């Protein structure tokens, strides 16, 4: 009876929240539209163009056995440090290069290929989802702080924290080792074994190259459309929560928590916003007045590490197609947020001095000035070419989808 009542309460609560959001969107149409456009702009300028090529290439690399080849080579590194197979090294590298939720998508693919056990997949997905260098240097450092050199500090703290998250998560599910023993703990990679694994994987994959490429494109765009939907949805939700005074109410509770970490309470609103959506939270943190750059960097590092519920929803949606649990991922994101903030404090002095993070333009070495212009050029290029690339890709996708549906119907 108690469980039935709890289930009914959950149903009523969810219905109430969805109805409240619908009413809020009707009463605040301009704010909802503005938030939707902001989310769409982020998706088609940055997210889609940066992730789509990597998603397609990843699918092809898995299909042709290259990932299996790399897995054998990386086994001596990945197994001792993270207690996952060597193929996890590919997912980790791609996750860092392309950003979330690439790590979750690749982990799911490897799980579907039976290259990972359930526990290994849960360990792997915990530390293979991170912010991309493009987002850290381009969107945050250049776009929000107008300080590209700050990206060195944020990136170092973020990826170092991610490494330690992976190392800590190696202790998750330790009982599994009683069920499965791994043979051949080799100190050096075995090239011949890696080549054999590559060949066997290609032989077992009976799909023609055209079919493999088509499936890779369709699967990648399906995932990116889902990602875009979540980005737009949470952008609107974040805006509505602010106008419903939910964000300020939660932020008022942080007035008592932030001073414990010697951080101004003015960061409350930006931190709550970042917990829901990473981009808006980072932008708001960069605009808080009366604070020093180190304090802003600490808050942004936590937001980048936690990743925001928007990313959590994307990952949870991807994991829902398998038996991989979401809870370890959530725990890892909280842990990553705190670790990244700690590393930001520890690395602040050496990075600030070496990379001239707070220096004026005339005091910066030439190679750092070139670095600044490089990231600004990349961000400008994405803002110009990104939407066109996205529209062309979606047009081609629609053409092939209609063609495929016609074949299925007849």
UniProtKB/TrEMBL annotation:
Asked whether the UniProt record includes Membrane among its keywords, one would answer yes
Q: For the Nucleoside transporter/FeoB GTPase Gate domain, which residue ranges apply?
A: 47-142, 224-320
Ribonucleoprotein keyword on record = no
Keyword annotations? Membrane, Transmembrane, Transmembrane helix
The protein in question is named Sporulation integral membrane protein YlbJ
* InterPro entries for the chain: Gate_dom (IPR011642), Spore_IM_YlbJ (IPR014226)
Q: Coiled coil located at which positions?
A: none
TM ranges = 51-74, 124-145, 151-173, 212-234, 240-258, 297-318, 330-348, 378-402
């Amino acid at each position: 009876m108690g469980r039935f009542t709890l289930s009914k309460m959950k149903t009523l609560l969810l219905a109430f929240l969805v109805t409240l959001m619908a009413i809020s969107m009707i009463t605040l149409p301009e704010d909802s539209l503005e938030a939707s456009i902001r989310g769409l702009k982020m998706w088609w300028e940055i997210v889609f163009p940066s992730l789509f090529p990597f998603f397609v290439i990843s699918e092809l690399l898995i299909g042709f056995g290259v990932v299996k080849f790399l897995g054998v080579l990386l086994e001596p590194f990945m197994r001792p440090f993270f207690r996952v197979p060597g193929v996890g090294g590919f997912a980790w590298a791609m996750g860092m290069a392309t950003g979330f939720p690439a790590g979750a998508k690749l982990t799911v693919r490897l799980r579907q290929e039976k290259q990972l056990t359930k526990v290994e997949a849960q360990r792997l997905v915990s530390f293979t989802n991170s912010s991309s260098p493009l987002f850290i240097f381009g969107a945050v450092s250049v776009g929000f702080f107008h300080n590209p050199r700050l990206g060195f500090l944020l990136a170092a703290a973020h990826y170092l924290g991610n490494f330690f998250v992976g190392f800590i998560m190696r202790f998750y599910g330790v009982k599994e080792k009683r069920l499965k023993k791994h043979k051949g703990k080799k100190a050096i990679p075995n090239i011949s074994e890696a080549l054999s694994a590559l060949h066997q994987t290609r032989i077992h994959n009976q799909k023609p190259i055209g079919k493999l490429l088509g499936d890779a494109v369709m699967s990648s765009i399906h995932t990116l459309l889902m990602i875009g939907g979540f980005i737009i949805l949470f952008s609107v939700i974040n805006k509505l929560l602010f106008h419903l005074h939910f964000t300020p109410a939660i932020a008022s509770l942080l007035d008592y928590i932030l001073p414990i970490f010697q951080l101004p309470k003015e960061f409350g609103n930006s931190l709550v916003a970042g917990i829901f959506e990473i981009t808006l939270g980072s932008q708001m943190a960069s605009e808080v007045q009366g604070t020093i750059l180190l304090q802003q960097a600490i808050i942004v590092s936590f937001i980048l590490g936690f990743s925001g519920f928007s990313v959590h929803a994307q990952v949870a949606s991807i994991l829902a197609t398998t038996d991989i649990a979401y809870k370890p991922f959530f725990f890892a994101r909280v842990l990553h947020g705190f670790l990244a903030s700690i590393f930001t404090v520890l690395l602040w002095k050496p990075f600030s001095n070496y990379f001239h993070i707070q220096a004026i333009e005339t005091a910066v070495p030439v190679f750092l000035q070139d670095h600044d212009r490089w990231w600004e050029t990349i961000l400008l290029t994405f803002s110009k070419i990104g939407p066109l690339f996205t529209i062309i890709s979606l047009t081609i996708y629609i053409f092939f989808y209609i063609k495929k549906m016609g074949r299925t119907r007849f």
